[in-house]
């Protein structure tokens, strides 16, 4: 019996051992060296077995849950209460993703692009031969420009525009180019240019340069080859005996020149004289202009030797056959496409401006391009620089003419002078310098300043100019007036290529930077205000009124309960009752800036605002009733789509 009981216990113990679960095996890697043969543990051991009592579970019977078999899982998952919610959630997820993608595309499509660098601040145009001479030879140069970059940054300039510096005979000072890939020796070397580009970019500025695709010197290789009827260059120029029997001629390959300078780091171009790119094939003579219609700046230099019926100057003809011919804009678009190839890097958009002096406002606007065909970012607006009889009406006409004719969504610009125009002070008078600068910094768009206009430089006198030069456009190119030292600080040499202005002892940078009421100080305050106030750089422009004396307009922006009211007087002294003219204006407003700096920061009673001749005020007041929201001003307010304005959503983004 004892033996049977022992067998039964042995069988029971074996039955309780179950199966080994590898998931619970521990200390599998037991090294044999862990057992010391000399230790007691290595000797014979007595096996002991614990017999579980009634009701106590054996730990070895507890196995991990192996999961639901596949057949059972499919049976449950196919039931409607599980299948339907799963399918609903799946399609909701798909719909949400598609909706998110569609919303993203829609927002990108209808949201305006933020301001580009050429919109964000003023441009400063430099005639390089007259800005600063670094080597005492009397001619301004590229190193001289680099030496004065710190001064340019004090003006809060964003873009430096350097006119033609190509190797040239300098006969007409800009256009007689001999080689578009070389720097004229009087300006320096290619290394000097590369250093200048690097220095400009280090200052956070951009650089644009002139490019004249139609004109070359008679010493240019193309001209010499064309004169000798060499290959494809035969018809690069118009020769009297030229014929077109063999088909349409191919224009010169100026695209490679564009690529050359873009690869040097140039940020954009001013394309000059584009209207002359093509000529009519029939080569007929052009009709003569009435003598009284010749521009005054040209007539002045010709008046003593201009016979009644003799044509001696280009301006004496109507240029119906040699300007703005059919196909010209196709070439301009191809220039734009070439530049776009270099605009693909983030932050490296390449700017394209065009100069087409003498064209009508309608012809000028074509350079903006078509809705889906891009040309210039803007044609340079030189209409203010031709204004010689200032009044509220004449200034208003220039502003409204540009804004009303400009294609929708484009960006305006405003110039007060240039190398081919009479300087602002000589043209309008000293008292109008400050109010004109205030005008261009408070209008919508990019203000453009010709060097020296910020200090009120004048044209030099004709009697002081060497008669060997073509004096027609020379008087506005005199050396920059830096201080009251010899040669106005322009050069340390014994002579300068042109004489300095006779007033340089008092009209210069060094004197004006220490005078709180100088033209330079006001210019710096205006440019700083333009940079810091969204109302001026991107806000709505609402035109209020004008008369023969003054012009009034506001700048405002959704989300900012502040308005700038500009009151600029181009006529005689005036007394204005602003309270009658603007219904929601407070009785007292603050003068943010005045052309008379003594008034800046003061308050003025809007019932009686007195303006002296040539005085301008930027008034500031708070209101929630913005003019562009009022029906009465619906057709008198302007904002460009380029200013982060969405016409679809009627939102002007203040944080763009």
Automatic annotation (TrEMBL):
Gene Ontology biological-process entries: amino acid transport; carbohydrate metabolic process
Region of interest called Disordered, as start-end residue ranges on this chain: 1-57
Biased composition (Basic and acidic residues): 1-17
Pfam families the UniProt entry points to: Alpha-amylase (PF00128)
SUPFAM superfamilies to which the protein is assigned, alphabetical: (Trans)glycosidases
Domain of life: Eukaryota
Bilayer-spanning residue ranges: 88-110
Protein known as: Solute carrier family 3 member 1
Organism: Capra hircus (Goat)
Native organism taxonomy: Eukaryota, Metazoa, Chordata, Craniata, Vertebrata
Gene: SLC3A1
């Amino acid at each position: 019996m004892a033996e049977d009981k022992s067998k039964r216990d042995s069988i029971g113990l074996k039955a309780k051992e179950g199966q080994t679960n590898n998931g619970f095996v521990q200390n599998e890697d037991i090294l044999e060296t862990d057992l010391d043969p000399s230790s007691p543990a290595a000797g014979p051991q007595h096996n002991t077995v614990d017999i579980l009592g009634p009701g106590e579970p054996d730990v070895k019977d507890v196995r991990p849950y192996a999961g639901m078999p596949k057949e059972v899982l499919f049976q449950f998952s196919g039931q409607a209460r599980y299948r339907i919610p799963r399918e609903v959630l799946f399609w909701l997820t798909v719909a949400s993703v598609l909706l998110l993608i569609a919303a993203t595309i829609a927002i990108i499509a209808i949201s305006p692009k933020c301001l580009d660098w050429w919109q964000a601040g003023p441009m400063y145009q430099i005639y390089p031969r007259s800005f600063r001479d670094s080597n005492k030879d009397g001619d301004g140069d590229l190193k001289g420009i680099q030496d004065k970059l710190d001064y340019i940054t004090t003006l809060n300039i964003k873009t430096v525009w350097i006119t033609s510096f190509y190797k040239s005979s300098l006969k007409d000072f800009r256009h007689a180019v001999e080689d578009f890939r070389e720097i004229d020796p009087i300006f320096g070397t290619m290394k000097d240019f590369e250093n200048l580009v690097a220095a400009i970019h280090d200052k956070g500025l951009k650089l644009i340069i002139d490019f004249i695709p139609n004109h070359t010197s008679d010493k240019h290789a193309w001209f010499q080859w064309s004169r000798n009827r060499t290959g494809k260059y035969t018809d690069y120029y118009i020769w009297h005996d030229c014929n077109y029997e063999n088909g349409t001629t191919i224009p010169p390959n100026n695209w490679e020149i564009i690529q050359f300078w873009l690869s040097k780091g140039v940020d954009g171009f001013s394309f000059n004289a584009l209207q002359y790119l093509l000529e009519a094939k029939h080569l007929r003579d052009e009709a003569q202009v009435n003598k009284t219609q010749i521009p005054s700046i040209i007539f002045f230099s010709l008046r003593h030797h201009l016979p009644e019926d003799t044509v001696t100057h280009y301006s004496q003809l109507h240029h119906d056959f040699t300007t703005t011919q059919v196909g010209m804009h196709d070439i301009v678009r191809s220039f734009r496409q070439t530049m776009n190839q270099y605009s693909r890097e983030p932050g490296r958009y390449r700017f394209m401006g065009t100069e087409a002096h003498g064209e009508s406002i309608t012809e000028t606007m074509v350079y903006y391009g078509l809705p889906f065909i891009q040309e210039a970012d803007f044609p340079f607006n030189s209409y203010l620089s031709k204004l010689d009889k200032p009044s509220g009406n004449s200034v208003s006409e220039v502003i409204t003419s540009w804004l009303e004719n400009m294609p929708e969504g484009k960006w305006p610009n405003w110039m007060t002078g240039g190398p081919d125009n009479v300087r602002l002070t000589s043209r309008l008078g000293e008292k109008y310098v400050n109010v004109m600068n205030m005008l261009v910094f408070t209008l919508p768009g990019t203000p453009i300043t010709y060097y020296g206009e910020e200090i009120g430089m004048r044209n030099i006198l004709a009697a002081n100019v060497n008669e060997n030069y073509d004096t027609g456009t020379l008087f506005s190119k005199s050396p920059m007036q830096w201080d009251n030292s010899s040669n106005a600080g322009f050069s340390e040499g014994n002579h300068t290529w042109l004489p300095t202005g006779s007033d340089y002892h008092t009209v210069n940078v060094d004197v004006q930077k220490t005078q709180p009421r100088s033209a330079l100080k006001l210019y710096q305050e205006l440019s700083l205000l333009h940079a810091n106030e969204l109302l001026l750089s991107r806000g709505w422009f609402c035109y209020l009124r004008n008369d023969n004396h003054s012009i009034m307009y506001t700048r405002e922006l959704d989300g900012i309960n502040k308005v700038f009211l500009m009151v600029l007087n181009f006529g005689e002294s005036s007394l204005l009752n602003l309270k009658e003219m603007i219904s929601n204006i407070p009785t007292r407003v603050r003068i943010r800036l005045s052309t008379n700096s003594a008034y800046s920061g003061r308050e003025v009673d809007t019932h009686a605002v007195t303006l002296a001749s040539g005085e301008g005020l930027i008034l500031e007041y708070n209101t929630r009733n913005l003019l562009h929201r009022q029906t009465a001003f619906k057709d008198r307010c302007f904002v460009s789509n380029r200013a982060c304005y969405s016409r679809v959503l009627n939102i002007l983004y203040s944080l763009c």
